[in-house]
């Protein structure tokens, strides 16, 4: 069986900016790095997305190179595909779907930042496009958010709610250890 494509969404330095507020899962990048090392050792397909915001106040603003740079721990290697985008889904305005289809990729493993933005949107679209989709819960992170009435929602509650909405509807939610240790992974 073929190894799924590993999608690493928007793991960029701009997400370290206080602009985003409190974040959960400080181990997300370390877990992404573990998965990336495994995919590279197996010569699997690794795909990155890079968010280049059109909003001047965003730390990911396309004219602010420091914020748009990939974090060192999960930096793309030569030959690994990078799709740039300026919306939440890695499928919108990119050639991601045709890239996967041309390579006959049927399943994907999604990681990255942030759970409530690009991870959630890309996961939904991946499931809707018919890819067997795995979302690695501890290889993504969320940020706190304010509700419509100004109430605060913690990063952890946002993360858990997003995962619950995606679970079984759009993706199989799995942890890094479950993915790396499960028998099914060994047979990819």
TrEMBL record:
It holds the Pfam family Isochorismatase. GO terms for molecular function: hydrolase activity. Keywords: Hydrolase. CDD domains: nicotinamidase_related (cd01014). Residues 5-178 form the Isochorismatase-like domain. InterPro entries: Isochorismatase-like_dom, Isochorismatase-like_hydrls, Isochorismatase-like_sf. It comes from the Bacteria. Belongs to the isochorismatase family. PANTHER family: ISOCHORISMATASE HYDROLASE, PEROXYUREIDOACRYLATE/UREIDOACRYLATE AMIDOHYDROLASE-RELATED. This is Cysteine hydrolase. It comes from Bacillus salacetis. The lineage of its organism: Bacteria, Bacillati, Bacillota, Bacilli, Bacillales.
